[in-house]
Write a structure and sequence with these properties.
51% helix; alpha+beta; single chain; 5 domains; disordered N terminus; 27 strands; 8-stranded mixed beta sheet; Calcium-transporting ATPase, cytoplasmic transduction domain A
Length: 728
């Protein structure tokens, strides 16, 4: 076994993938709301109803709306309603909530680009049908004035539509030419413009053929491909901005002995800040007063809460669990650990964005050849016939027949088919090149807490305890919100254990819960507090009077399908690595349980990114699977990444693929599907290439009119689309 350790340093798919239209309708409301809450655990319409009812019933709340796709709530409320109050109200009905700074959520703009593409596609399709109806009359024998009339009507329909619907191609082509380069949109734009110009010329000269229908059909097919491509990534948002939104927007500062609420941006180094139980740290600092426990799982991946006492360092984003704390700020604003993590994510995202897709590689080779061939055809035919009209017609036919419509559809058609297949298996593809990158994976890196495991402790030795011990433990645990206490309550409820009658129950923050039972003091909590010897396992101790302490042992339950996924990945020849911020014993035990040879414990976010960067420099293609804030930069920096739907918003946004259910077993199948999809993409490129090899010489030889070229182009596009559907 190889291990790396660093020193200890201080759903249902249909609901989870609700229509994007819902996000469009509510995005502005979330952004403009006075209070915005992240709701990472909601997953269905019943959750929406429960959360909205609880929020709307809270005094002072005027309106509350929940968006399932974004997993957020937008609340309009009176000025005296505090976000922390609403978070506690939702916790009371079993829903986790985090306050978001609505002012930083600019990444969640309404999907204007998607609506624009869909509108232009609809206009082009409607106009194309009408012009084709007019063309049928010409093909049926209309001649002379009647034919010219139909051509002019077609021109009047086509001109405004071409100007309106083709704008996405024109803008991209102009941007490329302005910077001295070529892309796929340059030959597209030239083909459209040349088809229209040729048609207008033919119409003005009373020619027999005009190609307005060809220009419109070309635009329609290309817009269809562009919209399919857009839909595969419409959900993606900036992870760095999501992380920034998680920063606490307000803080309670102690001034002259009084607590004053101020914006977090106004907190200065040296200020004393009060953090109530359940609140998140707004800045980095050191505890000056109070004893409590800290939940660091989102930042570090540690399963268990950490004891907090004066002198301990704390980081922005950590959650105070049990007792009030006073901290002295040591880093604020852009200097906090949470903000540095956001910067790390932004850097990692920019590195991954340098990946060149198959379509981009094809465009780099294809575009110059198309232009040169069309120009040579025009020059050659003009020198041969000295007829500009003939030369222009042939040049237009060459441009249309070589127009990269099939290439434009090759990737999005396959991506859409593969995305549909994976969605039915419970996986949502977010990024346009995710499948191509997933097909190249040879190494899989897993986080532990919340990814391979469920992230919640589970009592494992219930049967070892006497009934009276369980009754006492159940009563004491019910008075605490500590994760281990909740696990005891859950286990006792499942075993129908009735809590004992205990008086004077009170919780000592950072230590545990105590009370009086039959005249004896009973305690449930930390080993040192009850006089027990600490163990390597996750343990809570029960002591009754002067009797020997009893150990309640816990384990982090495996996520469904975790063992099967790891086994299938290893059987497929991929290397599996476990990297976690949890303690060494916990990580080592899980690695042994799953048969993972390489593991790393107590890893900070920078350690995860460094390890993945090192693997990448060795030529590895890394798939990262994680769910916490401490995984976000690694998710963004990996070759491709997956996060569960239960992950925090920032982790889901940083990933390329979201696992909608709780089962990890679809991951190996996703790699197989990705390889098949990549093969289909390459097949589509070969189909387009063979088509061009056959069709281009005919066009250059003057044997294809622009209309025949458009029909051939449409046939190749349909063939590519049908080949993509084989994935389904």
């Amino acid at each position: 076994m190889t291990a790396t350790m660093r020193p200890n340093m201080s759903a249902c798919p249909a609901c989870s993938a609700a229509p994007a239209a819902e996000a469009l309708a509510d995005a502005a409301a979330v952004r403009n709301a006075r209070i915005a809450l992240s709701l990472p655990t909601i997953h269905c319409s019943a959750c929406i109803t429960a959360v909205e009812d609880a929020l709307n019933a809270y005094p002072g709340v005027q309106e509350a709306r929940v968006n399932l796709t974004m997993k957020r709530a937008s609340i309009q409320a009176d000025p005296d309603v505090m976000p922390d109050d609403l978070v506690r109200a939702l916790a009371g009905i079993g829903y986790e909530a985090h306050e978001l700074d609505a002012g930083t959520l600019s990444a969640t703009e309404t999907d204007k680009a998607g609506r624009e593409l869909l509108m232009r596609l609809a206009v082009a399709g409607f106009a194309s049908m009408n012009v084709m109806l007019l063309s049928v009359s010409v093909w049926s024998g209309a001649a002379d004035a009647t034919r010219d009339l139909f051509h002019w009507i077609s021109a009047f329909i086509t001109m405004p539509v071409i100007v309106f619907s083709g704008q996405p191609f024109y803008r991209n082509a102009w941007a490329a030419l302005r910077h001295g380069r070529l892309n796929m949109d340059v030959p597209i734009t030239l083909a459209i413009v040349l088809a229209v110009v040729t048609s207008l010329w033919e119409t003005s000269l009373s020619g027999e053929h005009a190609y307005f229908d060809a220009a419109l059909a070309l635009t329609f097919f290309l817009l269809a491909g562009r919209y399919l491509d857009h839909r595969t990534r419409a959900i993606a948002r900036s992870a760095a901005e999501e992380l920034a939104a998680l920063e606490v927007p307000r803080a309670w500062v102690l001034r002259d002995g009084q607590e004053v609420q101020v914006p977090a941006a106004q907190v200065a180094v040296g200020d004393l800040i009060r953090v109530r139980p359940g609140g998140r740290m707004p800045v980095d600092g050191v505890i000056t007063d109070g004893v409590s426990e800290l939940d660091r799982s989102l930042l570090t991946g540690e399963t268990l809460p950490v004891f907090a006492e004066p002198g301990r360092d704390v980081s922005a984003g950590e959650v105070n669990l049990t007792g009030p704390l006073t901290i002295r700020a040591t880093a604020v604003g852009e200097q906090t650990s949470l903000h540095r993590m956001a910067d790390l994510v932004a850097i990692a995202e920019s590195g991954r964005s340098r990946y060149t897709s198959l379509a981009d590689k094809a465009a780099k080779l294809y575009a110059p050849g198309v232009h040169i061939l069309s120009a040579l055809s025009f020059v050659g035919w003009y020198l041969y016939t000295w007829d500009v009209r003939t030369a222009l017609n042939i040049a237009a036919a060459v441009l249309i027949i070589t127009c990269p419509c099939a290439l434009g559809l090759a990737v999005p058609a396959v991506t859409t088919a593969a995305s549909g297949r994976l969605f039915r298996r419970g996986m949502l593809i977010k990024h346009s090149t995710a499948l191509e990158r997933l097909a190249e994976v040879d190494t899989v890196v897993f986080d532990k807490t919340g990814t391979l495991t469920q992230g919640t402790p589970e009592l494992t030795n219930l049967a070892d305890h006497a009934a009276s011990d369980l009754q006492i433990a159940a009563a004491l645990a019910a008075a605490s919100s500590h994760p281990l206490s909740r696990a005891i309550v859950t286990a006792c409820d499942a075993a129908d254990v009735m809590p004992a009658e205990i008086s004077d129950i009170r919780e000592l923050p950072g230590y545990g819960t105590q009370g009086v039972w039959q005249g004896m003091t009973v305690r449930l909590g930390r080993a040192a507090w009850v006089g027990a010897e600490a163990r390597s396992e996750t343990t809570a101790w029960l002591r009754i009077g002067d009797e020997r302490p009893r150990a309640f042992i816990f384990a982090d339950a495996l996520r469904p399908g975790a063992a099967e996924a790891v086994r299938a990945l290893r059987d497929a020849g991929r290397e599996v690595i476990l990297i976690s911020g949890d303690t060494t014993p916990a990580v080592e035990a899980l690695a042994k349980r799953l048969g993972i040879a390489q593991w790393m414990a107590e890893a900070l976010p920078t350690d995860k990114v460094t390890r993945i960067t090192r693997l990448t420099e060795q030529g590895r293609r890394v798939l990262m699977v994680g769910d916490g804030l401490n995984d976000t930069a690694a998710l963004a920096g990996a070759h491709v990444s997956i996060s569960p739907a239960s992950a925090l918003d920032a982790a889901r946004v940083a990933s390329d693929i979201v696992l909608l259910g709780g089962d990890l077993s679809p991951i190996p199948d996703a790699l197989v599907t990705a390889r098949k999809a990549t093969r289909r993409i390459r097949e589509n490129f070969r189909i387009a290439t063979i088509y061009n090899i056959i069709a281009v010489p005919l066009a250059v030889a003057g044997l294809c009119s622009p209309l025949i070229a458009a029909l051939a182009m449409s046939a190749s596009s349909i063939t590519v689309s049908l080949n993509a559907l084989r994935l389904r």
